[in-house]
Specification:
Blueprint: H1 10-15, E1 30-32, E2 35-39, H2 40-46, H3 50-65, E3 70-74, H4 81-97, E4 114-116, H5 119-126, H6 128-134, H7 138-148, E5 153-161, H8 181-185, H9 189-195, E6 199-205, E7 217-218, H10 228-231, H11 235-244, E8 255-258, E9 264-265, E10 276-284, H12 296-313, H13 318-328, H14 352-359
Helix pairs in contact: 3-7, 4-5, 4-6, 5-6, 12-13
């Protein structure tokens, strides 16, 4: 069995949107629109108790896996001075980069938003003291470990949506969500389930975000649909999302975390004066790495003339050339420097394998 976009059925999808899966929530202070809300002032008092901490993390993992797929942490930053200091640095980076970068974004038109790629490293290098106090945050660490375990890898992008900024299309995220539907359909079903376990999506509000300012539109429980990484691309699923999504307001210093397979989209900023800034976190499992460090770029440069000659002389068939490329070049474009290698005309840059195939004029 394989998943295909054509085999995705809306009536089956709707059956997976079951709010009864939230029945085991114990530690939240509220549930709004099926989304558990947690008070971090209470959590901080309780997490020195090892059993409480373990049980809380297990609850968050259950919410992300089979529950709503999303939870909100109120006052994730007890001291919003840390938010303000980081915001000031980010605004400076935006001013420095405006006009010097391509302005490409995953879902918005070029230049529609202000975005800082690799905001994690840039904040660290420009203001290490601000970085240290920001990422000393215990709630970010707790959320990451609850889903990914220890030794996780943090990346961060700043997204700023100005008044009048339009909403995104609904989508799922990293990893399979960044592939084309055709590419994603070539992965077996168990990989579709594994993909969502390798990443935790998060967002830290850098300003008060009313619903009118466009906080993330969410469809709780949608990560439970097995072929969701293909389904979100269909017009009938997109329309269902637009008819049933929910939004929750966030205060500065609040955080939201969700399963990357959850159907979601940034909302439209319909205010006249709120410049919405969010620190988008994509936190990855430690295990998404190869065993050895290999200079595949160097390998590709050396192999290209050899493969070109072998193809033109008939020493190797196209299928055999593709096998060589698969064994030598990166088939996945991430991680990359998104400033110098942005996603142009798609959700992701070209991979090394795609570049080699283009150079050799292979299909």
């Amino acid at each position: 069995m394989i998943y295909t976009e054509e085999n995705c059925l809306l009536d089956q999808f709707i059956l997976h949107l079951d709010p009864n899966n939230n029945a085991d929530i114990v530690y939240s202070v509220d549930v709004q629109k099926n989304v558990p809300i947690y008070d971090c002032t209470i959590i901080r008092d309780q997490i020195p108790d090892a059993k409480y901490k373990q049980n809380l993390m297990a609850e968050w993992a259950a919410v992300l896996s089979t529950g709503a797929g999303v939870f909100v942490l109120k006052q994730a930053f007890a001291d919003t001075t840390q938010i303000d200091q980081a915001t000031e640095v980010f605004q400076g980076i935006i001013a420095q980069e405006r006009g010097t970068m391509g302005g490409e974004d995953h879902f918005a038109k070029s230049g529609a938003n202000d975005r800082i790629w690799n905001a994690l490293e840039k904040l660290c290098l420009q203001a290490p003291d601000v970085f240290a106090h920001y990422y000393a945050n215990d709630m970010i660490a707790l959320a990451a470990e609850s889903w990914l375990g220890p030794a996780y890898q943090v990346t961060s992008q700043i997204n700023v949506v100005r008044p009048g900024g339009s909403a995104q299309q609904p989508h799922c995220d990293y990893h399979l969500g960044f592939l084309t539907a055709d590419s994603a359909s070539h992965y077996p079903p168990h990989v579709h389930q594994l993909s969502q376990s390798l990443t935790l999506q998060g967002g830290v509000a850098h300003c008060d975000m009313s619903v009118a300012s466009g906080p993330t539109k969410l469809l709780p429980f949608s990560q439970n649909y097995p072929s969701g990484y293909l389904a979100w691309r269909r017009e009938d699923f997109k329309q269902y999302f637009e008819n049933h999504y929910i939004q929750l307001p966030l205060a500065k210093g609040d955080a939201v975390f969700f399963n990357p397979a959850l159907f979601h989209a940034a909302g439209a900023n319909s205010t006249k004066d709120v410049v919405r800034m969010v620190n988008l976190l994509q936190i990855s499992s430690a295990f998404g790495r190869a065993m050895e460090t290999i200079d595949r770029e160097k390998m590709g440069a050396i192999l290209l003339p050899v493969l070109f000659d072998a193809l033109n002389t008939g020493q190797l068939s196209e299928a055999e050339i593709i096998n060589v490329i698969a064994a030598s070049a990166e088939g996945y474009p991430f991680p990359t420097n998104l400033d110098t290698n942005p996603p142009v005309n798609g959700l992701a840059p070209l991979s090394q394998q795609q570049k080699l195939k283009q150079a050799l004029k292979l299909g």
